[in-house]
Amino acid sequence: MREIKKTNSWRYPGTFSIFIMDDRLLLICMGIIVGLCSGLAALALNYSLIFIMDNLANFRHYWWSFLIPAFGAMFSSIFLKKIIKDRGGHGVPEVIHSVSRYGGRLDLSSIFSRLVASCLTIGSGGSAGPEAPVVVSGSAIGSNIAKFFSLNERQRITLVGCGAAGAIASIFNAPLTGIIFTMEIILGEWSMVNIIPIAVASVAGAEISRNLRGNIIAFESSVNFDLSNYHFIACVGLALCASVASIIFTRTLRKMHNVSQDVNLPFWLKAAIGGAVVGVIGFAMPEVMGEGYHSIHQMIAGIFKDGMGIAVIGCLLKIFATSMTLGWGGSGGIFAPSLVIGSFTGLAYHRFLSFCFPSVPWVNEGCFALLGMAGMISGILQAPLTGIFLILEITGSYEVMLSLIIVSTLATTITHYAEPASFYLKELTESGQLLRPGTDSRVLADISIREVVETDCIAVYPDMLLRELIYTVKESTRNYFPVEDRDTGNFLGIIQLDHIKPYIFNTLMYDTVLIEQIMDSTPDTVSYDDDLSEVLRKMDMKRCFSLPVISNGKFAGMISKATLLDKYRDELNVQTAHSF
User: Fold this and answer.
1) Global pTM?
2) 328 and 273 in contact (C-beta within 8 Å)?
3) Domains of the chain (ranges plus CATH)?
4) What's the pLDDT tens digit per position in 305-339?
């Protein structure tokens, strides 16, 4: 059970006190530290990838170069599963799950494990993105700093968000995107208490990047986009295409993961097979290897290879290459591949329009490439604000703001009909592990059955007469009486006062009726391990207000809806409080 007591001060762990601070000021100061550390982690991964890719570039022309991404993915999987003992995955869902169920607790090893693994996968040529690993790293930095200073759960969750924001802001040089990504996807709530420290952390992450790498806009374009009314109409079709690409990418990646699970081979060999396939694809189209940022630069600048077919093939091959890399055991995220796929989608769509309507003065194809990125990110993450502000900040093309809004909102809406949950949330939603702040499931998850069980019930025995039960009723304040075996103490059933009223008012039956004759021997029961959401649902379905709690075959107490809802209200007040 998480700490529900409000705290208005903070004490440094140890034998002596150092500070007593206001919680908001504390989180702002901690946010700066977390943001700076997360920014450094993002820069470390970025420079490591550049170093590895530059040194391996000399070997790409050899016939055996397809083995390079195979070895990279293989060593990445071995490092994660054998050395770190991490189950792998895409990273961001694990952070969301940690915030949702465990108060933002992340292992210390998560600070570096995904960075190293993704560096091996992406640097060797695997098709994946570095953004998810740095989000995991930044979030783990925030979580462990909170642990070191013995902060409470709500403060820890805020610092996890600070780490994610600082990492995204640093790797993209996009502080606004860092804030929105964290609030929209990681935390899932727009709380004023969280926004200030997360904003500070995001700015800190961006500033450390600008000071060490330079104030670089990731995909800045020198082309001015002259938009017309035809362009805005075309945005509707582009949103549809981006939605289709998002759905195909999501389902292909999931399918490849399922296929890999069914293949009876060692995990490291499966990762190597996925990497080798990507290496073979790279012979025909090198643009699908790695994170693919070089291809995005070319598409936005309008200098990518000619032909609508090339763009369509590039889109499909990038989807397949990413699915093979991540679905078969490589490490990395889907952020960068989504940007590349979106660029290909926008480019192909522009060339299709130019072919069908050659007389229309269409805007430069680079504009459609960046709009395709926004549509793809918005569709696959179902986070339109993240898609809009990411593209604005990483391209600096603010003249396409209206188009970005059209494409992002429509892509999110259309994709939602085919995939109700985003890529990051689908697995958590299907397994019932997604508990957003303030929801019934999240509130009830922080309450254990042991906290609400009522133990003042008086037990009766099956061989007792009704007269003895009446004496017991007079002594009790409860309407429920557990029936237990005299010898073993095992639970046999329950007697509810409302159900035995006909017997009580017939005095002739006092010495002729036994408890075992009138008890309910098959009542609905719960255990300490049951989920309170399911307990409450069971009460509603059975139209009952109390249920017996059974532990190891013995009666442990009653759980009542009234007590449960009182505790629910108290917990809700804690979770929605505006101060700590």
Assistant:
1) 0.79
2) yes
3) 23-218 (1.10.3080.10), 229-430 (1.10.3080.10), 442-575 (3.10.580.10)
4) 888 889 999 999 999 999 999 989 888 888 889 99
Two tokens, residue 49: 């990838």
Which DSSP string do the residues of 167-232 spell out, in sequence order?
HHHHHHT-HHHHHHHIIIIII----HHHHHHHHHHHHHHHHHHHHHH-S--TT---------HHHH
Q: How many residues does the chain have?
A: 580
C-alpha R_g of the chain = 29
CA distances to 269, 279, 545 from 272, in Å: 5, 10, 57
**Rounded to 5 degrees, what are φ and ψ at 557?**
150, -175
CB-based contact 267:64 (threshold 8 Å): no
Q: Using DSSP, state whether 484 is helix, strand or coil.
A: strand
Closest CA to 39 of 155, 172, 183, 195: 172
pLDDT for position 16: 34
- Which residues of the chain carry a pLDDT beneath 70? 1-22, 87-90, 217-228, 430-446, 571-580
Token pair belonging to 238: 């582009």
The SS3 of residue 555 is strand
pLDDT in tens, 253-271: 999 988 988 888 898 999 9
> Are the CB atoms for 275 and 124 separated by under 8 Å?
yes
How far, in whole angstroms, is CA 404 from its chain's centroid?
25
